[in-house]
């Protein structure tokens, strides 16, 4: 199983690229010129995202570095212990929607400290894999096209994260016992 | 919503640091955060340039249309306001496929391209359309089959079975994605 999956993730990008190019040549598309034409937009798009990302990253870093995130975690701790929420994973659950690199660092830390095959290790792995950095994705995707009024999308995204986190706990608990 | 999240993150952060007598942390955080934002954007340049080039080839060759026709029923149901055979559909499907395989690097450029195509259908350029919201929540709920990064971390720490979490991840993702779709529907037709 492990071998198949790691082979698949190694091969998929080379295979995809070859398929696209060969199929295009077969359909008489001038592949190189078309590539350059499409690639031109890449730089401008990345530059357009900068103000959005800088704004969001400063806010997130302030919240995390100031100790506010830690305080919130401690404040909510008794409540979650009461609900049988494993407290070790709680900071990860809080950080996951707002900071991708932060969550990845925490997941690595939890796996390193508790072992990948412990309950905490499995739960952290599942949480990390099954939710995504909602705030980052919203910033990048809406920022790239200049959307300022985002409506309900972030609300729905955060609620879905919450469900994903609760589902992770339930699924891991039942699956591995 | 984002206005409030932004304001709260900053104000609560500054207040906490002030209360704890660590106000110097904020000066450091402002600098570090801004740097992280720029670093991420610059890191995106390489993959954006490359994948947008490759995807243009796929579009010109008619591959995107072919894929979107194949998955027409699902996509049509999720994005009823996007016209049939619109290029946005092809990019949306490419983005979702890349996400399924845990290829975040390839998924982001395709997602951005999909957003740009959806923006062309948008009558109010600064306001997100329902189709954009649906697409965003599908992405934030992370439809993953193979969580490659997590598997590689588990391998690094000598897990007896690095892939044993694939099943639980798919199940948990299923719940969060279903919630995202249902909530999106609810807000859309409210």
Quick structural overview:
Chain A is built from eight helices and no strands.
Structure description:
The complex is a heterodimer of chains A (177) and B (190). Chain A is mostly helical and 177 residues long. Chain A has one domain. Chain A is 81% helix and 0% strand. Chain A is built from eight helices and no strands. In chain A, helix 5 packs antiparallel against helix 6. The longest helix of chain A is centred in the N-terminal third of the chain and has 35 residues. Chain A is globular. Chain B has 190 residues and is mainly alpha-helical. Chain B has one domain. Chain B contains nine helices and no strands. In chain B, helix 3 packs across helix 5, helix 5 runs antiparallel to helix 6 and helix 6 packs antiparallel against helix 7. Chain B starts with a helix and ends with a helix. The mean pLDDT of chain B is 88. Chains A and B meet through helix 1, helix 2, helix 5, helix 6 and helix 7 of A and helix 1, helix 2, helix 6, helix 7 and helix 8 of B.
Report how far apart the termini of chain B are: 18 Å
Query: Percent helix among the residues of chain B?
Result: over 70%
N-to-C span of chain A: 21 Å
Helix proportion of chain A: over 70%
Q: How many distinct domains of chain A?
A: 1
**Low-pLDDT residue spans of chain A:** none
Mean pLDDT of chain A: 88
């Amino acid at each position: 199983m492990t071998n198949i999956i790691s082979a698949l993730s190694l091969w998929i990008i080379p295979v995809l690229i070859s398929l696209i190019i060969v199929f295009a040549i077969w359909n008489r598309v001038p592949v190189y010129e078309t590539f350059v034409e499409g690639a031109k937009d890449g730089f401008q798009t990345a530059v357009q995202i900068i103000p959005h990302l800088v704004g969001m990253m400063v806010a997130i870093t302030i919240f995390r570095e100031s100790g506010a995130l830690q305080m919130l975690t401690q404040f909510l701790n008794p409540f979650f212990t009461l609900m049988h929420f494993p407290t070790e994973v709680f900071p990860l659950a809080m950080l996951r929607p707002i900071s991708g690199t932060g969550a990845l660092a925490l997941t690595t830390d939890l796996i390193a400290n508790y072992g990948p095959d412990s309950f905490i290790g499995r739960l952290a792995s599942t949480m990390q894999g099954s939710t995504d950095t909602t705030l980052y994705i919203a910033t990048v995707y809406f920022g790239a096209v200049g959307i300022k009024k985002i409506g309900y999308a972030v609300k729905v995204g955060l609620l879905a994260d919450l469900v994903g986190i609760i589902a992770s706990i339930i699924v891991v608990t039942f699956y591995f016992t | 919503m984002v206005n409030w999240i932004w304001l709260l993150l900053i104000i609560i952060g500054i207040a906490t640091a002030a209360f704890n007598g660590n106000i110097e942390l904020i000066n450091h955080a402002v600098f570090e955060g801004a740097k992280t934002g720029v670093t991420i954007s610059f890191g995106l340049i390489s993959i954006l340039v490359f994948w947008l080039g490759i995807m243009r080839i796929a579009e010109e060759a008619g591959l995107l249309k072919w894929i979107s026709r194949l998955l027409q029923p699902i996509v049509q149901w999720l994005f009823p306001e996007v016209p049939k055979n619109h290029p946005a559909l092809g990019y949306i499907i490419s983005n979702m496929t890349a996400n399924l395989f845990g290829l975040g690097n390839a998924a982001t450029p395709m997602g951005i391209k999909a957003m740009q195509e959806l923006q062309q259908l948008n009558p109010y350029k600064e306001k997100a359309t329902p189709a954009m919201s649906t697409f965003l929540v599908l992405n934030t709920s992370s439809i993953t089959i193979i969580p490659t990064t997590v598997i590689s971390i588990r391998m690094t720490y000598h897990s007896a079975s690095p892939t044993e979490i694939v099943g639980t991840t798919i199940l948990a993702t299923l719940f969060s994605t279903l919630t995202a779709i249902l909530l999106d529907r609810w807000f859309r037709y409210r």
